[in-house]
Structure formats: structure tokens, C-alpha cells
């Protein structure tokens, strides 16, 4: 029955009785750190977003797809997987993708933005951070102070590299730096491919050093196409009768949301400690941009 109703509804909108179809835009909300972070593992991942993205692209009558992005970055792999999912559907459905950066679209958040044919931001938005970072701590002096002996046994000499309870090894650091440099080059290639001549060849040393900019600065550098907010922009382009429908990975039935919340609130000392670490991890990513 559902398969029958869909073409009938589409036909009704095209008949004199239904009137001319109103323009519509489906908005995919991409908010949060990218990757499996947080006590409930509720970061932005393709596994969590795949159904949401597919649902937004499902209608043939939609005028455009919009992405409302508010992300400080995170996993480069998940960033690219989400990016490719959106671009693949945009090409299959032949739909324009409009991006609107809110508080921040930086690092992996900017990779998500590159899925758009046009990118816009607020004047106060933070944009960019085209670089790669790896952070950690060293506890070797702490455990020595308390008389703790570190015992590690491996098969394969590189299995314990970058151990936070051992002194930093220059060879390990060199290997990590090579990986970071490779990831950085991949990021640069993606930006160059998607933004093309908009960024200008003379800006490369400035653009790709990991710095961030406000909306107007990012516009001047060619990272975005203008200063605009989602609602006002869509009304200006598609008219005051435009229908805006939002798609969020946090959606679903009330029962499903309550069940998910209940499961995520598993208690116990281990779970509490895990939640504390996950929250600190996510908070640290946002804090890099003063948020």
C-alpha cells in the first residue's frame, strides 16, 4: 500500500486539484564530534547516520538537500565515509547540496562541509582547521614516583610504540609524524578537488597550516561561498512557501528514544569512569575552538 500511495501523492501535487507543487528542502543535521565518542557512543558515524541520510534523499520531489553542520571534527575516516555517502546520493539523485555551518565547521567538520555544492556560514562561525592532530600524555615519571613497574610483552617490536607509560621514542614519533603527514595530504587533496579555483593557488600555505577563521575570513579565502543562515537563505532562494523538513540521527519513535536513553545509562564504577573519559575527550575537541 505504501508503494502505491507514494506515486498517487506525487500525481496529486501535479494536478490542477492539488495545485503547483511547493518547493521543499530536506535538512540533515550533523551536530557533534565525528567518530564513536561519548558514553552512549553517539558521535557522528556513518553507521549512525546512514539511514538518516538515505531518508533525506529518498523523495524525488525535493528541491535540494541542506546540511546543517556544527562539528569540531574527529575521526578522519568517519568524516570521509559520511562525505562519500552524501556525494554518492547527490550524484545518483541529481540533487544540489547546500551547506550551512553553524558554530563551527572545522577539521573533520569541514570535510563534511565539502560534501556541499555551496557552503555558507554565519559571520561568527569558526571554519577551517585543515590539518591533522594526535594528542596524548606521558605517565612514565608518575608510575616511577609510586614504585609501579610497567610490564609489557609483545610479539612484534612495534606493538608497544607510543606507550604513554614509557619515555617517548624518537623512532615511534617519526612513524606517527609520517602517518599524520599522509592524512594531511589527503585532506589537502580533498579540499583542492572540491573547492577548485575558489581557494586560489596563492593561498595554499595559509589555508593548509591548521589555522581557523571566522565566516568573513573563510569567505575571503574561498573556503565558503558566502555569509548566510539556513532559514533566511532557503526562503530567499525558494520562496516563502518553501517546506523545510529536518532529519536528525536522534529521531525515531518516542519508545526508541527512551529505550536508547535507558540503555545508555548503564551504571556502575566502570561505566561511570568510561563516561567521564568519553565526556572529557569530546569536551577537549570542542574546547580547541573556544566552545
Could you give a quick summary of the protein structure above?
Helices cover 45% and strands 15% of the residues. It is α/β, with parallel strands linked by helices and 291 residues long.
Account of the protein in words:
The N and C termini lie far apart (48 Å). The chain has helices at residues 2-14, 46-57, 76-93, 108-113, 140-145, 170-195, 204-207, 215-221, 230-238, 254-264, 269-287; strands at residues 24-31, 64-71, 97-106, 118-121, 126-128, 212-214, 226-227, 243-247. Helices cover 45% and strands 15% of the residues. With 291 residues, it is of the alpha/beta class. Helix 2 (46-57) runs parallel beside helix 3 (76-93). Strands 1, 2, 3, 4, 5, 6, 7 and 8 form an eight-stranded mixed β-sheet that branches. Strand 2, helix 3 and strand 3 form a beta-alpha-beta unit.
Show the helix and strand layout:
Elements: H1 2-14, E1 24-31, H2 46-57, E2 64-71, H3 76-93, E3 97-106, H4 108-113, E4 118-121, E5 126-128, H5 140-145, H6 170-195, H7 204-207, E6 212-214, H8 215-221, E7 226-227, H9 230-238, E8 243-247, H10 254-264, H11 269-287
Parallel strand pairs: 1-2, 1-8, 2-3, 3-4, 3-5, 4-7
Antiparallel strand pairs: 5-6
Helix pairs in contact: 2-3
Radius of gyration: 23 Å
Order of helices and strands: HEHEHEHEEHHHEHEHEHH
Question: How many DSSP E strands?
Answer: 8
Structural class: alpha/beta
Keywords:
291 residues, alpha/beta, 8-stranded mixed sheet, 8 strands, 45% helix, elongated
